[in-house]
Amino acid sequence: MANKRITVLLVEDNPVYSRLIQKLLSRSDYPLFEVIQVGTLEGALDRLSHGGIDVVLLDLILPDSTALDTFYRVRAHDMRTPIIVQSALDDIGLASKAVENGAEDYLLKDKINGATLLRSIHYAIERTHARGAEWSSSMLHLAQQQFLKAAYISGLDDNIRQRLLFPERAQIAALPFKRDGKDQVETVFAYRVQHVLTMGPTKGGLRYHPDVSLGEVAALSMWMTWKCALMKLPFGGAKGGVRVDPATLSKDELERLTRRYTSEFISLIGPDKDIPAPDMGTDAQVMAWIMDTYSEHVGYSVPSVVTGKPVVLGGSLGRNEATGRGLAYLVGEACRHIGLNMNGATAVVQGFGNVGMHAATFLAEAGAKIIGVSDVSVALHNPNGLPVDKLKDYVRQHRQLFGCPHGEIIPSRDLLELHCDILAPCALQNQITAANSSRINCRILAEGANGPTTLEADDMLDARGIIVLPDILTNAGGVVVSYFEWVQGLQNLTWPLEEINSRMQGVLTDALARTLRRSQAEKVDMRTAAMIEALSRVGAANELRGLFP
């Protein structure tokens, strides 16, 4: 993963101290810092006007301003960017007034070292993000738009509509954990969100990523509710997250963080309450640590507290590749529906992580020719077909596709616009928008990622006759096999892989058939049809259970 870059505006007129700050920040391997230095208040205000600043390091005594007036003028000019005061004035009253009026920290120049400076910048940015952006999420906005459109068309009861716009339960924690070989205690923000509690225990993944927020986790929990309802699984939707980059953590640090997460949220999770699973940045090992921590707390082994764990600990065969395999199953069904021969059909896969890699593998096994793939590092194209097995081997050795010799490098933005029969966005949200949907050149768009297509793009693709297999249908293979794992754990059974795959295919193809029928009956696009199908189940459950008290 590419290192995060933070842009610091250093407002300092002393060249000696300016060089010191830049030297301290240059020693950081993660994150990387870009330092922009100005020596006057007017210079600072002018640079802030251009945007792109993540944090301000502000000296109070400048040639054109003095003491708190310096801080007040910067704060009035920019209310959102975090400000850290760094001053030679050891004045507790001055420091208190600065912090009371919005400064994130007050550092004395003669006491600053690399550790204190990095920590101060990290927490300043984290606190600002936590205060201002938790619910401000493009993903949550998209999830709510999709829901409201389907609720309006289906005539969902207004009381239930209002209730489902936000999750029933959301918990935030500040998690402390120790870094290796240091006294330093790192604190990161963590979340667990449960969207609907009326359908049974809640179910949803746990992701570790530096951009995780409450709004993003809430959106993912909503999509999980619709996904489970569409698949007829006895779960409500949930999601968890930790705002951290796991690539910067050692295995021991990752374990300590995971166990701390489990202990903080232990009252929420359980095999009959809320069952976590792997997601972005987490894996079977992380699930094993959660299982062990929970089991130690209750005094006996509880395998069904998580899914996606190692098979030796009660995990299910086929769980790791289930989402990609399920996508390939549904693409095959869609091809039969429109009369497209899967053998020889061309396919492009955006994303080469767990979902994208397995989607490409199973599409190729079904006869499709993979002509384009990408990951965070590069996009590759070969009109004659890419050797998926060799790409997988390369990624296992190098952790990314960059440098892989088996395809031509193309701009990442061009990958989605390649002419193909099947396009599978399996990476990030908001990849297909009104700006590029007219250049999408496929017959079937199968969403392996959550929320890769905006509502405006949905309408434009539908008007062009492109079949969109929506995320709550196409990437549901993972939660279907997680359900199988949960059932196997509760009953102390082990199903063979052939049975698991056959059962998953049956669940997915049934959901596709119902979505197609709903689309034709309601004369709506596939996403809206899938949402209406899911809402009919969730709405009925809410009405039947009633309202307590």
Please give a structural write-up.
With 549 residues, this protein is of the alpha/beta class. The chain contains 19 helices and 17 strands. It has helices spanning 15-26, 41-49, 68-77, 92-100, 114-132, 138-154, 158-164, 214-230, 251-264, 284-298, 322-338, 354-365, 388-398, 412-415, 455-463, 471-474, 477-491, 497-522, 526-545, and strands at 5-11, 32-38, 55-58, 83-87, 105-108, 169-178, 185-194, 202-209, 236-243, 274-278, 346-350, 369-374, 379-381, 408-410, 422-425, 444-446, 467-469. The strands form three sheets. The protein has a seven-stranded mixed β-sheet with strand order 14-13-12-11-15-16-17, sandwiched between helices. The protein is globular, with a radius of gyration of 25 Å. The two termini are 49 Å apart.
The proportion of strand residues reads 15-25%
Shape, principal axes of CA atoms: globular
Average pLDDT: 93
Largest sheet: 7 strands, mixed
Tell me the radius of gyration.
25 Å
Helix content: 40-55%
Taking pLDDT < 50 over at least 5 consecutive residues as the criterion, the unreliable ranges are none
What structural class is derived from the secondary structure elements? Answer: alpha/beta
Strand order of the largest sheet: 14-13-12-11-15-16-17
Could you give the distance between the termini?
49 Å
| Number of DSSP helical runs | 19
Q: Which oligomerization state do the chains in this entry correspond to?
A: single chain
Number of strands: 17
